């Protein structure tokens, strides 16, 4: 068990895209249970914090056997609340209770297909001189190849980056996007920088088939279909 890492699972009560998504049943189980199960295979319960403002979510989380003693302050549970402030508050709460850690893993419940191996791969890439290790997948649109911007003066399209002369996608420089499933964060760095401003971000490529991020009802239907497929194969 990893006694050096604090795992933070953010689960705000309000959700507009998919109402009640954090505890909505997916594949027959509340969504948040998948992420809690992964964290509990990696760390003791004392180092896992479900950050929620909802007693309903806390109650469902406790069904896994995980104690949920921390409740997120109301001012950090609005539509405009950022992940950085949520993580720092959880860090402060843990430190006030004598829980020692030298890195923080953010696991969002909206990535239910991540595996223990996905998290371990990110942890292996982390070093104290990094600000963050983040799971990534190949970007759907490559700014050197098929991502365009509108010229302010003419209204015409031009390639986002480079000359636009690449004729095959595989010849263009690699471009990545966050998968949303795993973030391994330096505690000192998050106190200094916003997540998007960290200068030393290390990518950890992840299989795109496990990188479904649940934001819309269509995402949910896709995840249900993938889970049915995985069960049929097992």
Explained architecture:
The structure is a single chain. By secondary structure, this protein is of the alpha/beta class. It is built from six helices and ten strands; from the N terminus they run βββαβααβαββββαβα. A hairpin with a 2-residue loop joins strand 2 and strand 3. The model has no long low-confidence stretch (mean pLDDT 94).
**Overall helicity:** 25-40%
Broad shape: globular
β content, as a range? 15-25%
Distance between the termini: 27 Å
Query: How would a textbook summarize the main sheet?
Result: 6 strands, mixed
How many helical elements? 6
Rg estimate, integer Å? 19 Å
Strand order of the largest sheet: 4-1-5-9-6-10
Question: What pattern of helices and strands is seen along the backbone?
Answer: EEEHEHHEHEEEEHEH
Q: Which class best fits the helix and strand makeup?
A: alpha/beta
- Strand tally: 10
* Mean pLDDT value: 94
Low-confidence stretches: none
Q: Helices and strands in order, then pairings?
A:
Elements: E1 5-10, E2 25-26, E3 29-30, H1 31-42, E4 48-51, H2 55-62, H3 83-96, E5 103-106, H4 116-125, E6 132-138, E7 148-150, E8 157-159, E9 176-185, H5 187-192, E10 201-205, H6 217-233
Parallel strand pairs: 1-4, 1-5, 6-10
Antiparallel strand pairs: 2-3, 5-9, 6-9, 7-8
